[in-house]
Amino acid sequence: MEERFAKIISYIFHPLIMPTIGIWLVLNTNTYISYATSDPTKWFTTLVIFMSTFMLPALIAAYLLYAGLISSFHMPTSEERRLPFLLTAIIYYFTYYAIKQLPIIVSEFSLPSIIYVIILGATFSILLALIINFKWKISVHMIGIGGLVGTLIGVSLRYSSDFKSIICTALIIAGFIGFSRLKLKAHRLSQVYAGFLLGVACELVFILSA
User: How many independent structural domains does the chain possess?
Assistant: First the structure.
């Protein structure tokens, strides 16, 4: 029963979905960002980020699985993770660049710069995961939820917003994800903690220094 629960948690809170959740929360929570962004821009931005940071990497992973380059979507070995991580980092950076260019191309499209910074922080965390992966199998699930927590903390500090309830909820989810990765024997405890701290740190550094 616990193992089934762990698998469900791992699938629902897949690291690729975290940027979409983070951006949606930032754009729709009671902050300056929400008031400064029109509803069409919010929905369009969220859709673009979902398609480019979740759907496209997922489709690439499906192709790699079909081609026999990975054994499963979980990519259990460090060797299997290298190409997907690299391709995902490239896609994330392209997303950052494309979103940043939209206000130049479409004058009606106005988006606070913090959104670009969040995507750039996610890109950097994937690159670090790729580098670390050559020697150590860090938890990407925890990097994902850590990035979400770091985003919420960073935005709340930068814009003096009360995100306590959302941050607490995200921390509880992080606990469930960490439990699931340990229960499935996908990672050791040190890899779970390291992944979470890396995700938090990347977003905090980028958001607070931008």
Answer: 1
